[in-house]
Specification:
Beta-Lactamase, 4 strands, globular, disordered N terminus
Length: 166
């Protein structure tokens, strides 16, 4: 009986070490407050670098710009972009705006496994790269979402636009 107790204690201690070594899952949430919504004129301008990046690389993309609530402000789809990318671009932008983080943060959470899989249960969270919040004067004024290529290609086009927002 004494040896069985020792085995159980060793097993529990081993489990504790495993749990203690797990890294916390990064959330990627931005601390920026929400600001006034991006205007239609600004949204049109913001979309252009994403379209230019796609053209430069020979990709076809759908580009969506939403306000902080995730409501569509501007949308553009390049000729021959797969039709499934329309709703996906809008969903990526909406997710980035509402959750105050790039959708790549959710993709990374899921890829980490364990607790990161909880992202799959968040209503409206898109776990694929390509959505990025838009920050002007330190405030989130909306987000951009792109879809049409691989996750990395979508992210590259969204970043090309988001990086130019001031």
């Amino acid at each position: 009986m004494k040896s069985l107790s020792r085995i159980v204690v060793l097993m529990l201690a081993g489990c504790g070490v495993v749990f203690a070594q797990q890294k916390p899952v990064p959330t990627g949430q931005m601390s920026n407050p929400y600001g006034p919504p991006v205007t239609l004129e600004a949204a049109r301008k913001i979309a252009q670098p994403a379209i230019a990046e796609a053209r430069k690389n020979g990709w076809t993309m759908a580009v969506a710009i939403v306000d902080p609530a995730g409501d569509l402000v501007y949308f553009e789809r390049m000729d021959n972009t797969q039709l499934g990318s329309v709703n996906t671009a809008i969903a990526k932008a909406r997710s980035a705006a509402r959750f105050k983080r790039p959708t790549k943060a959710f993709q990374d959470m899921v890829a980490s496994g364990g607790e990161g899989l909880r992202a799959l249960g968040l209503d409206g969270a898109i776990v694929v790269e390509g959505g990025i919040p838009l920050v002007m004067d330190g405030k989130i004024v909306g987000a951009i979402g792109t879809s049409g290529g691989t996750s990395a290609q979508d992210g590259q086009c969204a970043k090309a636009a988001a990086d130019l927002v001031k």
